[in-house]
Amino acid sequence: MIAEISVVPVGAGESVSRYVAEVLKVIRSRNLKYELSSMGTSVELDNYLELGELLQEIDDRLVEMGVGRVYMVVKIDSRVKGGSIEQKKESVMEKL
């Protein structure tokens, strides 16, 4: 499964890069494959349980940093045959 996660620390001001960096530290600590983009982070996960645990840890970390409200948008691509972030991009590029 691939999930794209966009995290917004509400009330943190205009620049949120330090919070995004903390989100990436959480993802890295779990040894998950990910790709950062300008609008979110795509992460490869095994199942919904793993996704839920990741989201909880992200929320906990931001709250520890003093964020009073965390807004997250999650998009999920779950395929029976699996797939990776690279495979999805390569499939599109082949068709160009």
UniProtKB/TrEMBL annotation:
Any Pfam family the entry gives? Thiamine_BP
According to the entry, every stretch annotated as the Thiamine-binding protein domain falls at 3-92
- By its UniProt entry, which InterPro entries does this protein fall under? MTH1187/YkoF-like (IPR029756), Thiamine_BP (IPR002767), UPF0045_domain (IPR051614)
SUPFAM superfamilies hit by this protein: MTH1187/YkoF-like
Name the family: Belongs to the UPF0045 family.
PANTHER family from the xrefs? UPF0045 PROTEIN ECM15 (PTHR33777:SF1)
Q: Which NCBIfam families match?
A: MTH1187 family thiamine-binding protein
Which protein is depicted?
Answer: MTH1187 family thiamine-binding protein
Higher taxonomy: Archaea, Methanobacteriati, Methanobacteriota, Archaeoglobi, Archaeoglobales
